[in-house]
Amino acid sequence: MAGDTNPETPPEGLAGEPGTESVERSDDVEYGVDERPPTGESVLLGLQHYLTMVGANIAVPLALAGAMGMPSEYQPLYIGTFFVVSGVGTLLQTIVGNRYPIVQGATFSMLAPAIAIIGFVGTGPGQWQQAIVALQGAIIVGGIVEVAFGYFGVMGWLKQYLSPVVIAPTIALIGLSLFSAPQVTMAGQAWWLVGLTVVLIVLFSQYLDDSHRIFRLYPVLLGIVAAWVIATALSVTGIIPSGSAAFVDLSTVANAPLVQVPMPLQWGVPTFQTSFIIGMFAGVLASMIESFGDYHAVARLAGERAPSARRINHGIGTEGLATLFAGIMGTGNGSTSYSENIGAIGLTGVASRYVIQIGAVLMLVVGFVGYFGALITTIPDPIIGGLYIAMFGQIAAVGLSNLKHVDLDSSRNVFIVGLALFCGLALPAYMGNVESASAFQAGMASTPILGPILGVQAISDTVYVVGGTGMAVGGLIAFVLDNTVEGTREERGLDEWDQLTEEDEAFDSAYERYVKGD
């Protein structure tokens, strides 16, 4: 791996490259993208990143397994497969993709179309295997399309139409959309554990960060472990009852297999159905839009310039490869960039790609060792909820900070950002109140004039999935308005944005040096 072990040396892409002369590294960045902390420190930092995303990477397979009616004896292997895919996808992204310190993992944007497909196939005895091979086929095709979008330059081409007026609400909604996550909203009976986790992370990251280096580097890890240990002790002593959301059930660890081996096509040969593929593509599209915002967020927090079109293309193309791999491995889900670890970068200042790669190796190990995965599943949802509260507020703030490049005295800009943010919260809330994708389709079919069009399953599924994804809704609204409502380049922040965006040549040059090992 290429890397500079001297923290005082500017990371690649910050100095000495075309289009990068005016950027200085932020004091908040403890380790830059190309720096390598000591090995022992890197392992703990990688574990910290892994713990920040474990909730989502377990929640998705559990949701799918429950919807399919997958027998419990297959579920440890199913969850392990997700971690193997996550580890491989992260290594691909950090080595040959956009090379940002960003974790890849299961995506919620493909969960809604997946559940719709499962409902169509049926959930009777033995039908779970039919459902999962149907999901595999849709995911495989979706991954191929995403590869084409990336490597044929579609996403990079769109960059020229994206100003900070679009990027700001898109990134902000990545953070704000998690306020309704089940780990936050369903932890009411254990509010004290949510609050304890938040207080500990805030204490370590904001109040004690200057007192000792350990608090500055590991505030998330320390907060999670401390709350986890307290909850475990209270559960073992019987103070926390077994029915509580804060209860830690260690019996799942004892019953877990020591070794499990996820394999390609382990559930059977994929099946391909056009309506399933079109419905799943809506989730792929939402995932790409979310990742586009993630790239800008991680670049900003890592002290890097805004990503070039070529870096965006490499990132989306590589996510497509990881999604294709996920389909072959039989997750029934794809791969996307994780906002969770971006929030960890904001709290710790550790933006090292090497650390993320260490975390990816840990994910691979967890995928094959059943005990590790089972132990992680014992983290109570209220602790994950507290983690989300602490980190996703940071993401929302990072998104809004992009508005410093635009003219905020312009009523045009204020209107677009405000409408995008409100719709990005309101429309997914409306979609959440709809019973199912089929119910939404029935409602669309009764729409005056457009009913025959909106009632088509492929179209209604697309609207349902994209409409339920906050950053997709807000980003699309801001994109359309920003490019159709009259405004000058200076007013929209494009002139200043261009100065802060890396050149394609800078990305190519850095990658060539990486391959050569310089």
Layout of secondary structure:
Elements: H1 39-68, H2 75-95, E1 104-105, H3 111-121, H4 128-151, H5 154-158, H6 164-176, H7 182-185, H8 191-207, H9 213-217, H10 219-236, H11 251-254, H12 274-301, H13 309-329, E2 336-337, H14 339-348, H15 353-368, H16 370-376, H17 381-401, H18 411-433, H19 437-445, H20 451-454, H21 457-467, H22 470-484, H23 489-492, H24 494-500, H25 504-516
Antiparallel strand pairs: 1-2
Poorly predicted spans? 1-23
Number of strands: 2
Please state the average pLDDT score.
81
Beta-strand residue percentage: under 5%
Strand order of the largest sheet: 1-2
Walk me through this protein's architecture.
Helices cover 66% and strands 1% of the residues. The protein is mainly alpha-helical and 518 residues long. It has a two-stranded antiparallel ribbon with strand order 1-2. It starts with 38 loop residues before the first helix and ends with a helix.
Summarize the structure.
By secondary structure, this protein is an all-alpha fold.
Features:
518 residues, mainly alpha, 25 helices, globular, disordered N terminus
